[in-house]
Design goal:
17 strands; globular; about 50% strand; mainly beta
């Protein structure tokens, strides 16, 4: 089919299965684009977020998107680096709430548990991850847990267990973070 117009350097995507809206991060545009997966058309104008968004996750019960903005501007036209931040985008209104308080350098990957409203924020080359509570007004980081990550960490959520599984993306071990207990366990290779 025809190409779908989004911003510069689309990098990550998440879909709200309840509404059929896909959220795409545009790294060099510092925006997210919304796409109706039924019509494959963009919905409204791109929504501004923080500098260099690298990851997005959707809370389909609250109709929110959580975006990790690394602030690095890697591979984009010359410009100043931004502030590392998290953006919470209300997918109903298109409004954005930006969080910088307690956000460490280079947030890189995010996952959301829609059942609890808790999210895990994973950082590049770090020794910790943060638990964010999307049910608070405004949303806030409520806990930090110890994990080890490399340059390209990824995270996936298991909502019923309220666990996030983190691959290190380089150095480190795979970690399981229990968001309810707010602790982590490492999985090491048996070989």
């Amino acid at each position: 089919g025809p190409a779908i117009a989004v911003g510069s350097q689309p990098g990550s995507i998440a879909i709200n299965e309840a509404t059929g809206i896909a959220v795409v991060t545009n790294r060099c545009s510092n925006t997210v684009s919304l796409i109706d997966v039924n019509t494959l058309a963009t919905v409204g104008a791109a929504i501004p977020v923080g500098t260099y968004p690298t990851s997005v996750a959707v809370d389909e019960l609250r109709n929110l998107a959580l975006v990790a903005n690394s602030g690095i501007n890697l591979g984009c036209p010359p410009g100043p680096a931004g502030t590392p931040s998290l953006s919470i985008v209300d997918l109903t209104t298109g409004s954005e709430t930006r969080i910088t308080t307690n956000v460490s350098a280079a947030p890189f990957s995010v996952a959301v548990n829609p059942l609890t409203g808790l999210a895990l924020v994973v950082y590049q080359n770090s020794i910790h991850a943060d638990i964010l509570d999307l049910t608070l007004v405004p949303p806030a980081i409520v806990s930090t847990t110890t994990i080890t990550t490399g340059a390209n960490p990824k995270v996936a959520m298991e909502p019923r267990l309220n666990w996030a599984v983190v691959t290190p993306g380089g150095a480190g071990t795979i970690s399981i973070v229990d968001l309810g207990q707010r602790n982590a366990a490492a999985i090491t290779s048996a070989s």
